[in-house]
Amino acid sequence: MTPINHKKFEEVTLSTESIFQGKIISLQVDTVRLPNGNIATREIVKHPGAVAVLAIVDDRMLVVEQYRKPLERNQIEIPAGKLDAGEDPLDAAKRELEEETGYSCDTLKLISSFYTSPGFADEIIHLYVAEQLIKGEAHLDEDEFLDVESITLDQAQQYMREGRISDAKTITAVYAWQVYKLTGSF
């Protein structure tokens, strides 16, 4: 087996300029040397990472509906949230599931970790599946307003066609659930 060269087209960073430091993200502009020797700039969004949970209760997926300001509309999504500094993704997934839906579970299984927009951001989302859930009380953040719903796979696919589900993490979760229903494994 031939080893993969992950640095084949490496862009060497010559300098970094910090443009913005927010509560969640930061923006920097890197000056880089390209593989051909030319110089270019790259605008990069730095993000602490996030978790998302495909939570199944009685063959229905838990989703939350909330307003997404960048889109200026409501979205239906799986429970998710950003990682706190130094937080283990598994712990964060359990926390977000309970905070947003009120459900808890003993075990979560990692389905996949993926980058949301590697062309300009380093955000990674760790997608977990939770089954055998226990109903409790939600504990929303003070700036969080949402409704919790449980939907079938057919409803999820309909919401995707309607554009009510249109974010990558939820679409990935719906397809993972569909594969699970067909094959018995994630």
From TrEMBL:
GO terms for molecular function: hydrolase activity. Its cofactor is Mg(2+). It comes from the Bacteria. Keywords: Hydrolase. Transmembrane segments: none annotated. Residues 45-180 form the Nudix hydrolase domain. This is NUDIX hydrolase. It comes from Paenibacillus agricola.
